[in-house]
């Protein structure tokens, strides 16, 4: 079966809609690329690490955490500064700033062996893989940069849930 790549964020969803999207897309591996595996407050508590992993296990979806693909604090601060200049909040952001993209690509993506990751994932039999971080829109999140890199190498289809 051909590998398919998905992305998902949590902002703007409910627990029901979030997990329904994973089920509908028949996701078999959930790749968490956040720096911190928790979200403040009760609204999104279902994506806090322990609850999330238990729910995914219940649904028969594998879980992989790759902190090395999360942006550094410094890179996130540069995005925060860019957001401040245009008066945008993290939850309302529609796209990443050029400074963030440049820094993330050069500091993180160029250093990370995406091909080794994909070989490992595929050797374990996964082929419907979702990359997760919190932003609602993939274009506003580093996960878009990760999946675009995968697409450049493998031409896999990318669907944003």
Q: Tally the helices.
A: 6
Q: Give the N-terminus to C-terminus distance in angstroms.
A: 20 Å
Radius of gyration (CA) equals 15 Å
Output the helix-strand order: EHEHEHHHEHE
Q: How would you characterize the overall build of this protein?
A:
This protein has 161 residues and is an alpha/beta fold. 42% of the residues lie in helices and 13% in strands. The protein is built from 6 helices and 5 strands. The chain has helices at residues 15-24, 49-58, 73-86, 98-107, 114-123, 142-154; strands at 4-8, 29-32, 62-65, 128-132, 158-160. It has a 5-stranded parallel beta sheet, with helices on both faces. The longest helix has 14 residues, at 73-86. It starts with a strand and ends with a strand. The mean pLDDT is 92.
Could you provide a short overview of the structure?
The chain is an alpha/beta fold and 161 residues long. The chain contains six helices and five strands; from the N terminus they run E-H-E-H-E-H-H-H-E-H-E.
């Amino acid at each position: 079966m051909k590998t398919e790549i998905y992305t998902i964020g949590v902002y703007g969803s409910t627990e029901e809609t979030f997990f329904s999207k994973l089920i509908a897309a028949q996701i078999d591996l959930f790749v968490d690329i956040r720096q911190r595996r928790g979200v403040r407050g009760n609204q999104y508590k279902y994506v806090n690490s322990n609850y999330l992993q238990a729910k995914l296990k219940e649904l028969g979806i594998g879980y992989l955490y790759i902190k090395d693909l999360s942006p550094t604090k410094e890179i996130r601060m540069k995005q925060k500064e860019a957001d401040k200049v245009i008066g945008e909040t993290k939850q309302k952001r529609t796209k990443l700033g050029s400074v963030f993209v440049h820094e993330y690509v050069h500091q993180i993506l160029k250093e990370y062996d995406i091909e080794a990751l994909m070989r490992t994932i595929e050797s374990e039999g996964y082929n419907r893989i979702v990359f997760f971080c919190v932003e609602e829109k993939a274009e506003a999140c580093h996960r878009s940069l990760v999946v675009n890199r995968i697409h450049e190498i493998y031409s896999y289809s990318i669907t944003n849930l």
